[in-house]
Design goal:
The complex is a heterodimer. By secondary structure, chain A is α/β, with parallel strands linked by helices. Chain A has a single domain (about 5-170, about 225-290), classed as Aldolase class I (TIM Barrel, Alpha-Beta Barrel). In chain A, about 30% of the residues lie in helices and about 20% in strands. In chain A, the strands form 2 sheets. An 8-stranded parallel β-barrel of chain A has the order 1-2-3-4-5-6-7-13, surrounded by 4 helices. Chain A is globular. The two termini of chain A are about 25 Å apart. Chain B has 2 domains: about 5-170 and about 255-330, Alpha-Beta Barrel (TIM Barrel); about 180-250, no CATH class. Chain B is about 30% helix and about 20% strand. Chain B has an 8-stranded parallel β-barrel with strand order 1-2-3-4-5-6-7-14, surrounded by 6 helices. In chain B, strands 8-9-10 form a 3-stranded antiparallel β-sheet, with no helix packed on it. Chain B is globular. Classes of the chains: A alpha/beta, B alpha/beta. Chains A and B meet through helix 4, helix 5, helix 6, strand 8 and helix 7 of A and helix 4, helix 5, helix 7, strand 10 and strand 11 of B. Chain B: InterPro entries: Peptidase_U32, RNA/ubiquinone_mod_enzymes, UbiU.
Chain lengths: ~300, ~325
């Protein structure tokens, strides 16, 4: 079975115009499916949600599968209402917070995003019984777990995806660290996260790049990549790898992974190609190896 | 009276907590099934059974935390922990993983189930999902909520709520944080540890005390000053300047503070909270005894409608600042 590509929801606060261009370009990409929606902060949604219907239409017309993402941390009444509305849109929903399942119409299929804790086959089977058809595993899982879960997914009719490329979502909080960096609280954030289209870098005290702050979300700084582990994932029975949207030549990044999945690139070439497409970027692949997630990919 | 739920990392701490007035004590087995999987801590099967007997004989109850996420292919280790907690006479088990909860509900229908804070059920929909699906009887609320939000949640759910009032403070949604494994390879969800001691290194350099986690420098204090434990989210970092923002150095996520919500107990009571939880299974029995005594006095005062005793626990925060955390909206 050949793996294919899923494009995850945009984690950053981009302008409506940037979103429009981004999804227009995606429609002509080799990505098999796209997950779209605001999954980090509901305060951002009014600025770009009007772009979603058009983007969905364009992607569907191009033959791309589409799912709508919920928020990763749903607390407010308004956020719960928005979640319920997503299920009414008639398009598959990817849940990023387990509480979203409460709004699932009886018997409706759904997908599960990487911020939902699926660590073992018991949870995978439970979600499958509820109607899950596709699960993107948490980025911190080692390959040994991925193997067991991919096998369980095959038995339960659930496609299993792995975080393939992009800054890994490491934490979500009630507090906005982006606003805090500007000495503001979340309620008076003035949308400062929009100033950093790839998030704000956080370094250790000796100046080493370490984390990325993206509103209420904290991500790795190095870009997680499965470039060196694609064959292992294929052998494990993983059905797709997920590419997380980022600033820069995203079409080139998709193309690099597409070539890798189709076996066009020789082993080793993928990481080199990524380095060329993302000058100055750092790459990490420790999680799948059971090592610190930030372990450099070389 | 609000129920006081107290930590015990050892049989001695359990006895100390019960003797000091804990209504309930929570503890875990000495393995990866619980979220305080530290060397030298926690209970053997025999110790757990003896601990339950000790507590029950004195009118107290024991909860067993089995609140890490079972490893794929090794779920039987967690299943056995649930069965053993049940056999030991635990009042309830505290679980986080849906698969494990489903197993417990099916295999041990008479066992009371509490939803761990590690499940991060932060809204009524998530809580009701667990209650309806598995018959969960109590939820430990994540520390991302304000008192107002807790009040609103209690209006929409039928099960009990338990909230943290004292001790260590997670600033991220618990059970949804991989910062520790990013730096060390070990995480709360998979291994029951956060920023583990085995990955911490202290050094003295050029007049400063430095602390590293996994080799990453996240604390530097002048010699003679306090050298806080380098928990990742309370570390000191810098954010370089951008086109639109100046550089910042400091505790970008949270200061090295601990939680003290004593003053909020009357409001939490009013919010419909059933139980107050004290963090600290890694603490000494002397610490546990003192905190439990203080909080027992506080919940008794709250029950009589009296003001909270002020500054009760200042000593116990070990020179650290205390915060009411997310319970106040301005924290965000």
């Amino acid at each position: 079975m050949t793996m294919d590509l899923t494009i995850g929801p945009v984690a950053f606060f981009w302008t409506a115009e940037r979103m429009r261009d981004f999804y227009r370009d995606l429609a002509t990409s080799p990505a098999r499916r796209v997950v779209i929606g605001e999954w980090v902060c509901s305060k951002r949604l009014p600025f770009w949600q009007h772009e979603i219907p058009g983007a969905v239409e364009t992607l569907l017309a191009a033959g791309t599968e589409v799912a709508l993402s919920t928020l990763a941390l749903i607390t407010l009444k308004r956020e719960r209402r928005q979640t319920a509305e997503l299920f009414a849109a008639g398009i598959p929903v990817e849940i990023a917070d387990l509480g979203a399942l409460k709004h699932l119409p009886e018997g409706a299929p759904f997908q599960v995003g990487p911020m939902v804790n699926v660590y073992n086959e018991g949870t995978l089977y439970w979600l499958a019984r509820k109607g899950a058809t596709r699960i993107c595993l948490p980025p911190e899982l080692p390959l040994d777990s991925v193997r067991v879960l991919a096998q369980a997914g095959r038995e339960a009719g659930v496609a299993v995806e792995v975080w393939g490329h992009g800054r890994a979502p490491l934490a979500i909080s009630g507090r906005c660290y982006h606003a805090r960096l500007h000495d503001r609280a979340k309620d008076s954030c003035q949308f400062v996260c929009g100033e950093d289209p790839d998030g704000r870098e956080v370094q250790t005290l000796d100046g080493k790049s370490f984390l990325t702050v993206n509103g209420v979300q904290t991500m790795g700084h190095a870009h997680t990549t499965v470039a060196r582990q694609i064959r292992d994932l294929g052998e494990a029975g993983v059905s797709a790898i997920r590419i997380s949207p980022q600033h820069g030549d995203f079409a080139a990044i998709i193309d690099i992974y597409d070539r890798a999945l189709r076996g066009i690139s020789p082993p080793g070439a993928t990481l080199t190609a990524l380095g060329a497409a993302m000058p100055g970027a750092a790459f990490a692949d420790g999680f799948l190896a059971g090592a610190p997630g930030l372990r450099p990919a070389r | 009276m609000m129920e006081l739920v107290c930590p015990a990392g050892t049989p001695a701490a359990l006895r100390a907590a019960v003797d000091a007035g804990a209504h309930t004590v929570y503890c875990g087995f000495a393995d990866e099934t619980n979220a305080r999987n530290f060397p030298g801590l926690n209970f053997s099967r025999e110790e757990m059974a003896a601990g339950v007997d000790y507590a029950v004989a004195r009118g107290a109850r024991v909860l067993v935390a089995i609140n890490t996420y079972p490893r794929a292919g090794a779920q039987v280790v967690w299943h056995r922990a649930v069965a053993d907690a049940h056999a030991a006479g635990a009042h309830a088990v505290i679980l986080a993983d849906p698969g494990l909860i489903a197993h417990a509900a099916e295999t041990h229908p008479d066992l009371r189930l509490h939803l761990s804070v590690q499940a991060a059920a932060a809204n009524p929909d998530a809580i009701n999902l667990y209650a309806d699906s598995f018959g969960i009887r109590r939820v430990v609320l994540p520390r991302v909520l304000t008192v107002e939000e807790i009040t609103a949640i209690n209006r929409e759910i039928d099960i009990e709520t338990e909230v943290f009032v004292f001790g260590g403070l997670c600033v991220m949604a618990e059970g949804r944080c991989s910062l520790s494994s990013w730096a060390t390879g070990l995480s709360p969800n998979m291994n029951g540890v956060c920023s583990p001691a085995g990955h911490v290194a202290y050094a003295e350099t050029e007049g400063a005390n430095e602390a590293r986690l996994g080799g990453w420098l996240i604390h530097r204090t002048p010699k003679g000053g306090p050298a806080p434990y380098p928990t990742l989210c309370k570390g000191c970092f810098s954010a370089p300047a951008t086109d639109t923002a100046p550089a910042q150095t400091g505790h970008i996520f949270e200061d090295p503070v601990s939680l003290d919500a004593t003053e909020l107990i009357p409001r939490l009571h009013k919010a419909g909270v059933t139980a107050l939880k004290i963090e600290g299974r890694q603490r000494s029995r002397a610490y546990v005894a003192q905190v439990v005594r203080s909080f027992r006095a506080a919940v008794e005062a709250a029950d009589r409608g009296e003001p909270m005793p002020a500054g009760l626990l200042a000593k116990l925060t070990e020179g650290q600042a205390a915060t009411t955390g997310a319970y106040a909206k301005t924290w965000r």
